[in-house]
Amino acid sequence: MKNLIILFLFLTNLSFSQTTFVLKDSETTEVLPKATIDFLNGNVTHSDENGKVVIPKEVQEIEISHLGYISQRLKVSEIKEVVLLKQDFFEVEKITISSKPKKGKKSIGKGYHGSFGSECAVLIPATEKNIDKRIVALKYKLVDSRYTMKNNRYLPFRACIYSVDSITQKPDKKIFRSDVVSMKKKQKWFSVNIDSKNIKMPKEGLFIVLEATDGSLYNYLRINTGSGAADAIPVVAVKLFYNSKSPNISYYRGNLEKREDSWKLIEGHFLMDFEFEK
Fold first, then answer.
1. How many CB atoms lie under 10 A from the CB of residue 184?
2. Helix ranges (DSSP H) in 45-129
């Protein structure tokens, strides 16, 4: 009994010797893991997977920072059970998505923005020059956003290949998916080598796809599109004009729409291509 009383007093004293709180997004109220908590004494800690932060008794003031959020400096004595961080927005360009093709040409944005886990695809048709040829690399023209979010061309993604649905002409089955890749230095085209996979161009053609990873690899960074918040993911260039007669039909689908009929036609041409054996 005496030992239980001592343990109770110890735990009670410990609880009063520390300050704890949960870190959340001010708009969505979602918890924020992996935020940096600077004790301003040479020591730091991080919020856990549930957004919980524990501050030692001797710390009087802290600074909270998280990628994509406005940093805060707070006195420990004023901290409540929940601390809210505001998102730090950036401007990016827009792109038009359509369920039906339009005739003629139309000017659109130079860059594409989707959501975490989304996919963009462009059809590479079979021709006399490439049919039955082995694909040695997948090529992507990655760019930075026009207004801000510099260097997002270097963010990670997965390179994929889909077959073509014979009825809908949309992406059908995924026949290749790379490990996570990223461009390390600025170059006109970023290539993912698949020479060893021995994938050949069929008569139906194939879709080359850029798949954004889940939000954890982007630290869940959000940016402002001018019409609302959007996920910060790699940007693939889009041909400035859409031509309804172009064989390079492009589609997009978001993370929560993983089914065939969710592919939406894009009024533009994603700049992605295959490199074939010589």
1. 8
2. none
- pLDDT average, residue stretch 172-183: 93
In one-letter notation, the amino acid at residue 69 is: Y
- Distance between alpha carbon 56 and the CA centroid of its chain, in Å? 35
| Spatial separation of the C-alpha atoms in residues 137 and 195, rounded to whole Å | 6
163 in any annotated domain: yes
**Residues 177, 107 contacting (CB under 8 angstroms):** no
Does residue 108 lie within any of the structural domains?
Answer: no
My answer on whether 126 and 241 are in the same domain is: yes
CB atoms within 10 A of CB 138: 25
List, for residues 15-26, the tens digit of each pLDDT value: 456 889 999 988
Confidence of residue 53 (pLDDT cuts 50, 70, 90): very high
* Angstrom distance (rounded) from CA 5 to CA 17: 18
